[in-house]
Design a protein that fits this description.
The chain has about 190 residues and is α+β, with helices and mostly antiparallel strands. It is built from three helices and 13 strands, in the order ααβββββββββββββα.
Length: about 190
């Protein structure tokens, strides 16, 4: 009887202390996983309902993820009150992964929202179209404007299983980023 109780206690203790291996991944291992499956990201990512950008490729450098997009596809569009249409175009989206705060994931569209602190999603080399009213014939032309900063970006993954796995990797990366920021804060000597 004692043997049975002892083996039961050891079994319960073993399973209660077991850890999920996916939670043990380091920063580098998590980035490597995302790099490995970056080609699963759908060719078209959407900023809002009236816009979409075509993804050319995704690159990683240290703690930065760069999404190179087609500069001829708009990432933001808006219809003005006078029925003119304003669009913004960019060459790349740069995300500082050290400032990744949280993610939101929906299986409905396999969309993963990446949220950052301090508007650390930057659309680089931005151009804006604007309407000219010369010679009684309106036409649109482009003007370079400042880089646009946001606190989020949405990416789409083909397939529910893969989108779920990549969403979990980004969620783990957000957790690790929070830990890194806390360690940096403690190392600086700041209390707040």
């Amino acid at each position: 009887m004692k043997t049975i109780l002892l083996s039961l206690c050891l079994t319960i203790t073993f399973f209660c202390n077991a850890q999920d291996a996916s939670n043990d991944a380091t920063w580098e291992e998590t980035i490597d996983f995302i790099k490995k499956y970056k080609d699963e990201v759908n060719e078209y990512g959407v900023r809002n309902q009236e816009s979409q950008e075509k993804i050319i490729n995704i690159e990683f450098s240290n703690s930065t993820m760069t999404i190179n997009i087609d500069p001829d596809e708009y990432f933001w569009g808006h219809r003005e009150a006078d029925y003119t249409y304003t669009s913004l175009y960019a060459e790349s989206i740069i995300i500082d992964l050290k400032n990744l705060k949280n993610i939101s994931y929906t299986t409905k569209y396999s969309g993963i929202y990446l949220y950052t602190h301090n508007d650390d999603v930057t659309f680089k080399n931005v151009r804006k179209n604007f309407r000219n009213n010369n010679n009684y014939e309106p036409y649109y032309s482009f003007r370079n404007i400042d880089d646009q900063k946001y606190d989020d970006v949405r990416i789409f993954i083909d397939g529910d299983e893969m989108s779920n796995r990549i969403a979990k990797a980004f969620q783990h990366l957000a957790y690790l980023a929070t830990k890194k920021r806390e360690e940096e804060r403690k190392a600086s000597g700041d209390k707040f």
